[in-house]
Protein: Acyl-CoA dehydrogenase
Organism: Marine Group III euryarchaeote
Amino acid sequence: MERRIDHYLERLVSSDSMTFYKALCEFAEEKIEPNYLDWERNHQLIPEDVISEMGQMGLFGVTVSEKYGGQGGNQLDLILMGLALGYHSQSLAITPGAAMSLGAKPLQLFGTEAQKEAHLPDLASGKRMFVFGLSEPGRGSDATNPQVTAKKDGDDWKIKGEKCWSTNAKWSSHVVVHALTSPESKPGYRTTCFIVPMDDSNVSYQEMAGKDLWSQSSTGSITFDDVRVSNDAILGKENEGFKVMAQTLNGGRLFIAGMSLASLAFALDKCRSYSQEREQFGVPIGTFQRVQDVIIDMDITLEQGLTWLIDLTNRYNDNTLDRESAAKVKIECSRKASDHLTMAMEICGGVSSLDEFGLIRHHRDLFVCRVGEGSNFALKGFAARPLMPDITLQ
């Protein structure tokens, strides 16, 4: 059965973009789908040989300029990669996705030429990754006031504290640390971002145990014990780390919205197929109105979400996308996809609980989309501010 998502994408993107997207779909079908269930049952992260193959394909450099060895693509190419790989597994999609949208992107946006030349070629080839150190054990939505600190020590800085929920930590060569540097300054000018090597003797990493979603993705806790760095490690400007963080997350939220729709697309196709094969009372369950309601609701949401997301992605490429729009599409796509997955599992019944059926994987992973790149509840707060500018919203 043809993927329903392809029917909509062909109307929304160019033929060249579809060729790129379908090539990634074929890669996932041939190299990932036959092996994924074994990785899942053995609690195995994405194998390093698969990561290496994705690097050879250029997937870690899709949006990196050709000047630095990348593919020279744009945000639409990144979104299409997420849709193609996320159809099978969000863990698979987020590995190169986070490496670019959270790793290479801040360097592309704010790095000095020396920093770009030092890191982007290896990032684009997949030989190294950057991880964005943002979330903390005691800080989630209050990202403007991190507990990780960076204090002046002569001509250097000393970084202390812990970051957690850091995607791709296991495979990363460097971490971009968002640290408090000027606590007395006004909000938005209290923090600075630093590029810190993961192999520094005062940096320690531990994979976060007990995680039961994005199970094949590395999610680490990173501790900094008075790590010493020079001014050359600053990414962007001193005390403007919030700007680095905000612009980085803008594109990341589009990617999360895309992965949400990829999971929804998988569920829609699974239900379409199953409802025509599974019989009860002597007829396929797809003949029942309630089952049809669930399937058509998923289809409507998929078409609406893709149309909205592609429009915002084009605006991102034109540098006209506002933060509120990126937040809203992430909120709506993750929320609707998550709600629909519950209904999809209900109409398919007990078979939905089996890992080989696939729905339970996407159902679990969609929770990350609701809280990642800013929780939906927190994002609603700042997305509402332009609607009520005459009062202070909490």
